[in-house]
Amino acid sequence: MGGIKVDTQLTEKDQRKILFRLLTYTKPHKKLIILAFTLLLLTTLGDIAGPYLVKIFIDDYLTPGNMAVKPMLMLGSIYMGIQIVKVFLLFFQLVKFQEIALKIIQQLRIEVFSKVQALGMRYFDKTPAGSIVSRVTNDTEAIKDMFVTVLATFIQSGVFLLGIYVAMFFLNVKLALFCTILLPVILGVMTMYRKFSSRFYMDMRERLSQLNAKLAESLGGMQIIQVFRQERRLRKEFGDINEKHFQAGMKNIKLDGLLLRPAIDLIYIMALIMVLSYFGITSMETSVEIGVLYAFISYLDRFFEPVNQMMMRLSLYQQAIVAGSRVFRLLDESEHAPAQESKPGLEIEEGKIEIRNLSFSYDGKTDVLKNISFTANPGETVALVGHTGSGKSSIINLLMRFYEYDRGDILIDGKSTRDYSKDELRKKMGLVLQDPFLFYGTVKDNIRLHNHDMPEEKVIEASRFVQAHTFIEKLDDKYDHKVVERGSSFSSGQRQLIAFARTIATDPKILVLDEATANIDTETEEAIQTALEKMREGRTTIAIAHRLSTIQDANLILVLHQGEIVERGTHQELLAQKGLYHKMYLLQNGLVERMEDAVRQGS
């Protein structure tokens, strides 16, 4: 972010950059801001006028004993009128500042959320989900506090202080000049506070982010935690992070306790002693106007009230600056999803896939794919098999443009995948994962993914096609049945069938199946194999399979080992070679035979 350091103490230059960048979000709301500051200025003038009207009453009426009714009623009416109007102005001012802040944060959250969706998979590989959630929610909320309270308080206090200084000079020039000595002292306290607090707030924000990450991880893996009795370990890890967050918070509280109210109160007492001493010495030579003394002390008290307000808000300001640095770090993240050099009007018509000399590395050091080449013609099925870590999923990731590749190329209908628009690729390529993801909503919404242009008939037709219609019809509300988080109320097989229906409903040219039948029971698998055969007709299909029985009819089977294609051919050709595929086939069938023997012996 323009050279701004992160996760360390922010320098004055860094903090100014972040502040100015945050202020750019106020540009679309100029008219509203002008109205809010006009109201603020009027309320400030009302605050300044109060003590001066009391001074007039004391010096012109009370002290001389001049109790003229009409002038006093007029003075009292003006004073009360100012106070009543000020109450209404203050209400509207606060509402307008809140409205501005909420609009700004609304815009900022949309930007952050949109940025997250545009990031490449590499970013999510290295960043915990809880940390991202913390930036979208907690950090933007801290920024909102700055716009709501800090800026309004600082500007109001600044205008108020300026008005008080003018009033002080109007009352007594010499004493007002003495009071200007206080400004460098107050600014020094503020500078010292900002210097140390930014370090503590950065630490607190990072610990809060870690807490969110640990919580998200625990909720996502609750079944594993309970099955393997990991509750104590997770509690300890969460407690350790929580303790560090507590320690960082205590450091900041101690700093607040020293440099905020107590330090300013000490300066105020010294200023009050100075003013009273001045009037005491002056009274030995000339008479002192009681009204002037009251007004000066009142202004002095009101001078330190906004200073205290500014100091108390300074902690919110520091939190907002630190939160802003974290949000902008996410917004400036360069790990984008692969860019498309889309050519206008280019469409996928046949779905022929050619992979030429493709090599790839996730970390830039170790290749997980090495010189991969093969062709999948329309209507053909190419199956990828191999042990875990052999590179099967990496081929899928590159084909779907989840990651960028720089060696070799992937062509669809003779054109590089980089040349197609992202919308065209997503529209013409259907992906079914081993662990399907279902959204909150209804079954119908999950099949058509909230594409309301898709008629309900097409949703039902797709469900019938993949054998999902039967179980959906048995649900309470059928296609309007509510889906909870991740579809946890459905069985693995039911979730997979809904995912199949979702893919078929878009009528893709290319099918990508990542072990799509792994979570389906044998009976359901037999039914779905028929559907898969129909799905593959006229479509190019790339299928990852661990169960070799599911891809025996594939036109081409590629056997991968450590990122390389070591064998290729049909099922019968590979068995005849008696290589790695043959060993895998024998292993799987041997296990099946032993399980069947065990069942027979048990019966």
UniProtKB/TrEMBL annotation:
CDD domains: ABC_6TM_TmrA_like, ABCC_Glucan_exporter_like. Residues 353-587 form the ABC transporter domain. It is found in: Cell membrane. Keywords: ATP-binding, Membrane, Nucleotide-binding, Transmembrane, Transmembrane helix, Transport. It comes from the Bacteria. It is a multi-pass membrane protein. It holds the Pfam family ABC_tran. GO terms for molecular function: ABC-type oligopeptide transporter activity; ATP binding; ATP hydrolysis activity. Residues 34-319 form the ABC transmembrane type-1 domain. One of its GO terms (cellular component) is plasma membrane. The keyword Secreted does not apply. The chain crosses the membrane at residues 32-53, 73-95, 147-169, 175-193, 258-281. This is ABC transporter ATP-binding protein. It comes from Neobacillus piezotolerans.
